[in-house]
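Re: your question from the hallway

Yes, I did run it. Sequences:
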Amino acid sequence: DAKTTQPPSMDCAEGRAANLPCNHSTISGNEYVYWYRQIHSQGPQYIIHGLKNNETNEMASLIITEDRKSSTLILPHATLRDTAVYYCIVRVGNQFYFGTGTSLTVIP
Amino acid sequence: NAGVTQTPKFRVLKTGQSMTLLCAQDMNHEYMYWYRQDPGMGLRLIHYSVGEGTTAKGEVPDGYNVSRLKKQNFLLGLESAAPSQTSVYFCASSYFGGWGSYNEQFFGPGTRLTVL
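Structure:
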């Protein structure tokens, strides 16, 4: 069974915020949620991670619901270079479980 | 720093042939991982290593073997390649991976393998 569920694709206008949702309803209390992105089939790149609290870094913000069953990655001002596949990942012990990802297209 | 490098970048095999993929990292990371990515899908973990001389099975280990003889290298072997192993293979490394710890993985550029 998939540990994460994401919409297959989304569009976002350049300069606007991109909000990418993820469901991880079976996550347990000590399992982190990670977000990576993959551009043009290159190796995935780390964006952000969190456990319980909302997190922000220079790239994005991560909002995790209080029951931890879902999260949202927010790219505050999307640019054309943010066009990529975004993966919501649950880490269980030493293993990362990737979902099928959301293909984000930023439109000029 | 080169980061994580993978050799070769592309390879075509015939069914039944064997090959070894090499992953090298120069960041002194303890943990290393091998993933495969099939078209339209996310990455799936094949095997991983938590330190030199140790290996463990991931989500899809069948048909693959690994070795970690040196801390900086992680080898993935296919003893008898099958068409179902046609995929893109990614190696990754991380500094640490214990429970409750931050564990950013750094990925290599991938190896595109086709088995005919």
